[in-house]
C-alpha cells in the first residue's frame, strides 16, 4: 500500500475511535447543533492560525474551546432559544473565518479541503495530532465516564450525588471541540458532525448499555472508514464524503433489518 493510503487509514481509524464514545454522548444529549456550531467555528480557527502564524490545528482547538465556553455562558440567558443562538454563532463564525482568509492577500489555502476534508492528504504530523490528542481525549473521557453518564441521564439526580453538572457539560463540549479540530482535515467542517453522529445512531439500534453503544459506534465508524477509502480509491470519489456516505448506508441497513432493542 502507498504511504498516503496507510496514513489515511490510520487517521480514519483514529477518528473512529474518538467519534464512537463522544458521538454517543452527542446522541444522548441531542448535541447535533452544538457539533455543527463547533465545526463551523473551526474554519475561523484556521484563519486565525494562519494570521497569527501558529499551527492551524492548535488554533482550531483553541477557537473551538473558546466558542464552547461562550455557548455555555450564553445559554444561561433565556432571551434567545438555544437553536437560534447556535444558528447565529455557527454561521457568524464560518462567515468571519472566510472573510479573514480573504483579507490575507499573502496567504492561499485550499478552502475545499477544510470544508469537505482531504483524507488522502494526511501527513505524519496530522497523525501525531490525531493519535496524541486522541489519547488525551480518551484518557479524560474514560476517567470521567461515570460522572458524564450520570449528568447525561438525569442532571437533578447527578447534582444530588454531588456531581458538578455544569463542569461535566463544559468538559464534554471541550472534548468535542478538540476532536472536531483534529478531525476537520479528515471529513471537513461541513460534515464532521455526521461522522460523530451517524455511527452512534446506528449503534443505538443494537445496544443494551451505554458502554456497548460506544463500542459498537467505534466499530461502525471503523467500517465506514474502510469502505469509504475503498470507494474513494476505486471510484475516485472524495474520501471524506465517501466515508460519511458509507456510514449513512450502514445506518439505513441496520435500521431496516434490526428490531429495536428493549
Automatic annotation (TrEMBL):
Domain of life, source organism: Bacteria
NCBIfam families: PRK09543.1
Transmembrane segments: 6-28, 40-73, 85-107, 127-145, 170-201, 213-234, 240-258
Lineage, opening ranks: Bacteria, Pseudomonadati, Pseudomonadota, Gammaproteobacteria, Alteromonadales
Keyword list, A-Z: Cell membrane, Ion transport, Membrane, Transmembrane, Transmembrane helix, Transport, Zinc, Zinc transport
Organism, as annotated: Agarivorans gilvus
Protein topology in the membrane: Multi-pass membrane protein
Localisation per UniProt entry: Cell membrane
Protein name stated in the entry: High-affinity zinc uptake system membrane protein ZnuB
Matching Gene3D superfamilies: ABC transporter involved in vitamin B12 uptake, BtuC
Entry function: Involved in the high-affinity zinc uptake transport system.
Family note: Belongs to the ABC-3 integral membrane protein family.
InterPro entries according to UniProt: ABC_BtuC-like, ABC_TroCD
CDD domains with a match to the protein in the record: TM_ABC_iron-siderophores_like
Amino acid at each position: 500500500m502507498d504511504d498516503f493510503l496507510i496514513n489515511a487509514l490510520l487517521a480514519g481509524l483514529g477518528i473512529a475511535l474518538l467519534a464512537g464514545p463522544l458521538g454517543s454522548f452527542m446522541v444522548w444529549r441531542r448535541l447535533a447543533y452544538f457539533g455543527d456550531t463547533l465545526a463551523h467555528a473551526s474554519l475561523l480557527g484556521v484563519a486565525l492560525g494562519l494570521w497569527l502564524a501558529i499551527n492551524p490545528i492548535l488554533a482550531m482547538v483553541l477557537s473551538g474551546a473558546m466558542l464552547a465556553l461562550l455557548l455555555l455562558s450564553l445559554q444561561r440567558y433565556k432571551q434567545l432559544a438555544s437553536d437560534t443562538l447556535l444558528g447565529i454563532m455557527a454561521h457568524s463564525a464560518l462567515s468571519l473565518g472566510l472573510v479573514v482568509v480573504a483579507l490575507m492577500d499573502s496567504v492561499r489555502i485550499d478552502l475545499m479541503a477544510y470544508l469537505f476534508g482531504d483524507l488522502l492528504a494526511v501527513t505524519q504530523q496530522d497523525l501525531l495530532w490525531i493519535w496524541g490528542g486522541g489519547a488525551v481525549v480518551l484518557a479524560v473521557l474514560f476517567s470521567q465516564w461515570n460522572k458524564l453518564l450520570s449528568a447525561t441521564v438525569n442532571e437533578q439526580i447527578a447534582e444530588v450525588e454531588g456531581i458538578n453538572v455544569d463542569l461535566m457539560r463544559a468538559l464534554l463540549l471541550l472534548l468535542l471541540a478538540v476532536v472536531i479540530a483534529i478531525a476537520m482535515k479528515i471529513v471537513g467542517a461541513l460534515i464532521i458532525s455526521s461522522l460523530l453522529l451517524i455511527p452512534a445512531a446506528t449503534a443505538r439500534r443494537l445496544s443494551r448499555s451505554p458502554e456497548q453503544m460506544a463500542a459498537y459506534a467505534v466499530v461502525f465508524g471503523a467500517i465506514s472508514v474502510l469502505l469509504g477509502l475503498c470507494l474513494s480509491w476505486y471510484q475516485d470519489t472524495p474520501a471524506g464524503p465517501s466515508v460519511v456516505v458509507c456510514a449513512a448506508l450502514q445506518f439505513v441497513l441496520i435500521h431496516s433489518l434490526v428490531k429495536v432493542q428493549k
